[in-house]
Structures are given as C-alpha cells and as structure tokens.
Amino acid sequence: MPYYTRIIWIFTLVLIGIGLITLYSASYENVRVSQQVFYDQLGCALVGVALMWWLSRVDYRMFYDVAYVLYGINVVLLVVVLFAGRAALGATRWFNVFGISFQPSELSKIAVILMLGRYFCKRNPKLSFNLRSSFYTLCRDLLYPFLLTMLSFGLIFKQPDLGSALLVFGIFIAVLFVSGLDMKPFAAFMGFCMAMVPVGWHFLKDYQRDRLLVFMNPNIDPLGAGYTIIQSKIAVGSGQLFGKGWQGGTQNQLNFLPERHTDFIFSVIGEEWGFVGTMVVLGCYLALIYSGLQIASRVKDKFGFLVTVGIVSILTLQVIINISMTMGLSPVVGITLPFISYGRTSFMVFAIMMGFLLNLSQKRAAYS
Questions:
Q1: pLDDT given for residue 32 in this prediction
Q2: Which among 275, 246, 263, 276 has a CA at the least distance from the CA of 323?
Q3: What angle do CA 158, 331, 312 make, to 5 degrees?
C-alpha cells in the first residue's frame, strides 16, 4: 500500500473514531440531543468507509465524465430545495427522502470542485493586462467559471447558508490560483472581491449581522447572539491541558453549550480532552492536508491536480473556520468539522473526497 494511501486511511479513521466518541458523549442521557445522532453517524461511518474503499479502486477519470452532469443536478436541487425543502432554524436547506434528510448545499462542494476541475483542465487562463486581450478570452478564461460558481453561491446564500456559500467561493479562488492565471489579474480580482465585502453587509439577514457584531464583542448580547460563543470559549478553556475526561465536561453534560453535536463539537473535545486532545485532532487534519498537497505536487494529470487542490482547500478552510469560530476567533457561520460533527451529507461528501485522494495516491498512471 502506497505511503500516502496509508496516511489517508489511518488519520481519516482516527477522526471518524474521535467523532463517534464525542457524539456519544454529547448525546448521552441528554434531553436536548437525542442519542440517535450517534447511531446515525455510526451508520454513515460504515457506509462512508465502504464508499471510500470503492472509490479508491475505480477509474478516477469517471469523475471527469460526470462533472458537468453532477453540477447541473446539484443546481436543480438547490433551486428545488428553496420551494420544497424542510425549514429548520430559520433556513430552508434540507430534503427529506424516506425519512432521511440531506443538504444539497453540502453536495455543492464536490460538484463545484469537479466542475471547475474539468473546465480549467482544458484551458490555461491567459487573461492579462494586455489591451489586445479580447472579450471572448475574458469570458472563456474567467467569466464563465465565475458565473457558474456564483450561481451555486447565490442559491446557497438564498437558503440562507452563508458558511457553505463562502466555502464554495473559496473553492473557486483556490482552483483559479493554481490554474495558471497571471498573478496581476488574480491580485486585481482579489482586490475587487475585498472591495465588495462592505457591499455584502446589506445583503445579510439580521441574525447574520448580529453574529458579525457579536464576533467583535460577545458581551453586547451575552444571553442572545453572544451566548454560544461565550459558552464555547468557557468549554474550551476549562479543559486546560488534559481535559475533564470523557463525559466529564460540565458545559456539555449540563446543556450550557448549544449545537454541541454539530457546529460546536470541537468545544466538547476541548473540554473533555483538553489541549492535548485538540492537538491530536489538529494533527490528524494536518496529516490529511499534507498528504493531499503531496499528491497534488506529484500528479501529472491536470484534472486530478485541480480536483485535489480543490479538496485540500475545502478541507483546510472548513477546519480553520470551524475551529476558529468555536474559540471566538471568527464569526459563527454554521460550518461542520469534517468527519467529527454530526451531519450525514457532510460526512458522505468528505468520504467521496477522501476516496478521490486515495484513488490518485495509488494510480501510477496519474503520475506518468
């Protein structure tokens, strides 16, 4: 078994195990969080591991063949969910099919990665400040993939799901950066995006604005929008070096910490296993990210390279944003911690991504 294949398998399984242990603790004899979330995640883990194994053995180029089809299906689902989806917590993000819910916005992550990978693998962006650059070149190299990405971004933002929408845009930035575009136009594009940030304030929902204001000062609304951040920071800090032990966290067991099985599960890890436990989790993610970068640096097939970069970027962004928001270092945007937070669709999407990395790590043809 190739070295990076072993690394991906080992650390993915460790993260899945940590997630199951933490979910069991967060839901044990708890009136707010049903222990069914643990059994749901356990079922997802079994299916997800089997899916990873299968995807690691098929021809990875099949992702190329279905990239646009998957993107189109996902866009249709994003439209339909706005009208026929299940509403919860002020958002309409879920479908219920035979009693099982799933989020099309989570599927957008892999759909956009594959779409951009296929689009740019046949094109080397040549956009520059040369006045002879034609409008056709602009559309071909940048505008078309940008509009396709913004279509998914806008539909997800409409749900509303700001966190997933920002991740989709982050995928576009990462893939565009490595696609071969000249750095000057890329820097100009990033400058334009930064200039548009204040404009985006006017499109946010009231609760999203409250989250940004609370990020600056959680104490302005300690019993409302700032409550979760305050309790999360207490949980992480109280764990100290070695934590309070499994099922020993007071913020978790006494129901002070909301959403502890989803967005704020890292706070439970910090409280129960302390600094040492959180470093183990970060080390596992770092090993996966490093392995992905090494695979990307070796692969010669451009589609495989671009998709690998997209996968590494979404994993990195999601880990950084989730952990930083639990510690009050970034605004709360509702993003799960891969393989650890409860979330069936998110779990399966990351299983697909790891399956793709496993596939490339052991396909010598991709390196020729």
A1: 74
A2: 263
A3: 80
Distance CA 299, CA 303 (A): 9
- Is-contact 4 294, C-beta < 8 A? yes
Residue 10 burial (CB count, 10 A): 13
Nearest to 298 by CA among 312, 289, 308: 308
List of residues 6+ apart from 116 with CB closer than 8 A: 145, 149, 171, 172, 175, 176, 306, 310
What residues contact residue 321 under an 8 Å CB cut-off, 6+ apart?
163, 167, 330, 333, 335
Phi, psi of 194 (to 5 degrees): -65, -35
Lookup result for tokens 């596939």: 359
Cα four-point dihedral sign 200, 206, 211, 215? positive
What is the DSSP-derived secondary structure letter of residue 203? Answer: G
pLDDT score at 252 = 76
Taking alpha carbons only, the member of 62, 1, 13, 8 closest to residue 293 is 8
**pLDDT tens by residue, 146-167:** 889 999 998 898 887 888 888 9
pTM across the whole model: 0.88
Which pLDDT value is given to residue 129? 47
Contacts of 86 (CB under 8 A, 6+ apart): 92, 94, 95, 96, 101
Long-range contacts of 35-41 (CB under 8 A, 24+ apart): 37/261, 37/342, 40/342, 40/344, 41/342, 41/344, 41/347
Residues of the chain with pLDDT under 70: 1, 31, 85, 87-92, 98-99, 124-141, 182, 184-185, 199-225, 364-368
Residue keyed to tokens 């439970």: 268
Q: How confident is the model at residue 237, as a pLDDT?
A: 84
For the chain, give me the number of helices (H) and strands (E)?
15, 3
